[in-house]
Amino acid sequence: MLARMNSRIQxxxxxxxxxxxxxxxxxxxxxxxxxxxxxxxxxxVPYLAVLPAIVFSAWFCGLGPSILSMLLAFLGEQYWFIPPxxxxxxxxxxxxxxxxxxxxxxxxxxxxAETTRRITAKLATxxxxxxxxxxELGRSHAELEQRVSERTSQLxxxxxxxxxxxxxxxxxxxxxxxMQDEERRRIARELxxxxxxxxxxxxMNLSAVQRESDHLxxxxxxxxxxxxxxxxxxxxxxxxxxxxxxxxxxxxxxLVSALQHYxxxxxxRSKIQVSLDLPTDLGRLPPEMETAIFxxxxxCLTNVHxxxxxxxxxxxxxxxxxxxxxxxxxxxxxxPSEKQSEIACHGKTGVGMSGMRERxxxxxGQLEVTSVPGQTVVAATLPVRQAQGKSAISA
Length: 395
Description:
single chain, alpha+beta, 12 helices, disordered C terminus
């Protein structure tokens, strides 16, 4: 309550004239009160009756008005209520001592009140600043929350866009692999059916010429024989390229025969001993899965021939009710640790490794590469039922 009263009085006493007027009025009031009470208190503790005026002025009116109140109260007491009356002369040691005590007490009250008032004013100013700082912090916090919310919303939108773009890229990559396989199948068929037939006809014509070589000169006969050998070699290479692009056995009889034929041809061409371990109940798989497995084996054995320096390799396929696991193992120099880290983190890898991962991703499969000096194992796992379901849906 005192604080509220103080606040109201301070707002009312914002100018100096009002403060001085109030101090004069309060001092006059207590001097009048002193006169009323004079018959009772007399000259006993003469200045006690006017000290409340000094306390009030010191607390509410400030330093200047309180000093004025102290002086006016002293003069009034000295003039009207302390003998000799109606004079300002101080007579006797007791009166002088009383005056000194009055001024000491009054100054103590004034100093205490002024110090307290200034501390209160500083506290009020500090409180206002703290309140303003708190309000500013509140506004900053609200603004920060709004920015965080907007940024979070933008990040979520960006993540959705990235996921959408990732799905689009994966779909495009999958479609690209399918188109690549279809193009390889078409080129292989063209090589076998068109170019192969032309080369075969050319070989038959050269055979007919060779039968009449006794009518030719020795040089011409030798050229015909060399041309026949070149056409035979060309026919063999066309068949090899056609089978590498897309083995016809893969469509006609399935993965087992295609792998057996490819592994035999690879071992003959590369001089690398390759063992093939296939389950007896492998059977037919969805065409897309058979193509993917064949391409992974083809890529792995090509890497063995190019990079490992191994003289042997092993291809193993194991199948359970829900999963198919393919392993290609060599006995080469291994993969450097930096390269293994890139492969494990799906970092910057070769086109072949990325192609294998993308083929497996179509069926929800995974690719693992483990390598130590003297051995590298590339393992691919595919969920069979899921792949068969996708194949049935696409069909």
